[in-house]
Amino acid sequence: MISVKLKLKGMQQFMRGTVDFKEGIVGINGDQITVDKLPFDIPLSGTVYGTILNYKGAYETLKTSMHKEPYKEPPKAPILYIKPANTLISSDAVIPLPEDISELEMGAALGVVIGTQATKIAEDEAFDYVFGYTVVNDVSIPHESVYRPAVKEKARDGFCPAGPWIIEREAVKNPDELNIYVYINGQLKQENNTSNLIRPIGKLLADVTAFMTLYEGDTLLVGIPENAPLASVNDHVQIEIEGVGKLQNTIKSEKNLLGGL
Q1: Given this model, what pLDDT does residue 45 score?
Q2: What confidence tier does 60 reach under pLDDT thresholds 50, 70, 90?
Q3: 129-148 confidence digits (pLDDT tens)
Q4: Exposed e or buried b for every residue in 202-213, given b needs 16+ CB within 10 A?
Q5: Where does the Fumarylacetoacetase-like C-terminal domain lie (predicted)?
Q6: Alpha-carbon dihedral of residues 48, 53, 57, 63, nearest 10 degrees?
Q7: Rounded Cα–Cα distance for residues 57 and 198 (Å)
Q8: What residues have CB less than 8 Å from 20, skipping those under 6 apart?
Q9: What value does the CA radius of gyration of the chain take, rounded to a whole number of Å?
Q10: Could you give the C-alpha distances from 25 to 9, 15, 22, 71, 183, in angstroms and in order?
């Protein structure tokens, strides 16, 4: 059994439990409950930061354009953005599809959850500041430019499903070698591995905290692989990260959802 931190709908506090991946069972307060019977809430509490162009394939796709206007050279530091609170939803929640949009990009991302305030940390000590890992779908409206903040494309309501839990750091032997799978309606649409990161997790944490502090509870997304698959209304999306968990959501038309969610 693997130790996890989770939150259930209707509960104010976070809870500690265990997960048996093979049997699909969660242990909470001595009870053994199948995963599909639990009403998971969002397991994150701090700010969620995304990272652009940290997968080798994604970087190569745009490498030529990096030498053109407006910057004329490749980035020297991590390119970050924020997934604000309105984007966060839980596993099994509905992803709203805006009325004027036909498809959304499913951004499979490993979320690194910070356990201790981190400022100007060394790469070889980076994991001392990590609490654990979660699965995140960094949803976005398809767009080409990475030279301006894609707020309209990435910060819509419900555009950051996360969960269903946070796996504690010690349970993941090597987060820099995790298989990532994206299934849409049960069909495998994308496969990648965190070994393809340009900045491995320790390096990424060191480079980010060189210019900004990450606080306990914050989550840093390590990046999105190239060729993010597209999904549309009524599609069921599952993102699986080896040893971390499975995040499931369904896309529904925003106009048919009460209050937009």
Answers
A1: 93
A2: low
A3: 999 999 999 999 997 766 56
A4: bbbbbbbbeeee
A5: 47-251
A6: 170
A7: 9
A8: 1, 2, 26, 27
A9: 18
A10: 18, 15, 8, 50, 22
Full-model pTM: 0.92
pLDDT band, very low/low/confident/very high, at 236 (cuts 50, 70, 90): very high
Q: Which tokens in the block code for residue 50?
A: 């995304």
Q: What separation in angstroms does the CA of 192 have from each of 1, 66, 154, 167?
A: 26, 24, 22, 20
Residues 6 or more apart from 37 whose CB is under 8 A from it?
none
Q: 59: part of which helix (H) or strand (E)? A: helix 56-62
Q: What percent of the chain has pLDDT over 90?
A: 77
Residue reference for tokens 């991302």: 109
Q: In the Cβ-directed half-sphere of 230, how many Cα atoms lie within 13 Å?
A: 8
Select from 254, 235, 233, 209 the least CA-distant residue to 96. Answer: 254
Nearest in space to 7 (alpha carbons), one of 45, 36, 37, 50: 45
- Amino acid found at 60: E
Are 202 and 123 a contacting pair, CB within 8 Å?
yes
Q: How buried is residue 67: exposed, middle or buried, by Cβ count under 10 Å (0-12/13-18/19+)?
A: exposed
135 closest CA partner among 95, 195, 78, 175: 175
In the chain the domains, ranked by start, together with CATH numbers, are 44-260 (3.90.850.10)
